[in-house]
Design a protein that fits this description.
By secondary structure, this protein is α+β, with helices and mostly antiparallel strands. Helices cover 32% and strands 42% of the residues. The radius of gyration is 16 Å and the shape is globular.
Length: 151
């Protein structure tokens, strides 16, 4: 093992997994992650967001958190497979959270008859505390997401 590989192996990489099933076809669930106005409706509680959901495209979101106040984040879409998978980077711009660094989110969409199983993996957290905070945030987002599908 090279010194670089050894140093990389020593860096903690906490990750979170969320699985949800939605009683909607995969096309509807996927489009709520790839159509900017739909994304803004469930993902952003301030109304300030820009999404360019194409490979290499960027996004910018402002969120209001009871715990942290106004949060700003950005990312880049790494992979998009229609009705199957979306992968993007996630980087906080808010000073109190910049130490999290850049993390990676992968969302997989699995057709289950007339329903869709969504598997979300968010990886690269430097501490368990950051992972836990993001688990709470994604749980909130999934509640909003489900409401938006019914709307």
């Amino acid at each position: 093992m090279t010194e670089s590989e050894q140093n990389q192996a020593e860096i903690p990489n906490w990750l979170l997994h969320l699985n949800r099933e939605f009683a909607f076809p995969v096309e509807k669930v996927f489009s709520a992650w790839t159509e900017p106005e739909k994304l803004k409706g469930w993902f952003c509680n301030t109304g300030v967001a820009e999404f360019n959901p194409v490979v290499g495209g960027d996004f910018y979101v402002e969120l209001m958190s009871e715990q942290f106040g106004l949060l700003k984040l950005t990312g880049k879409y790494l992979e998009i497979i229609n009705n199957e998978k979306i992968k993007f980077t996630w980087k906080w711009l808010t000073e109190t959270l910049t130490e999290v660094g850049e993390t990676v989110v992968t969302v997989e969409f699995l057709e289950r008859g007339n329903s869709t199983e969504l598997k979300l993996t968010h990886e690269g957290f430097p501490t368990e505390e950051f992972k836990n905070n993001h688990t709470e945030g994604w749980s909130w987002a999934m509640e909003n997401f489900e409401k938006s599908l019914h709307g």
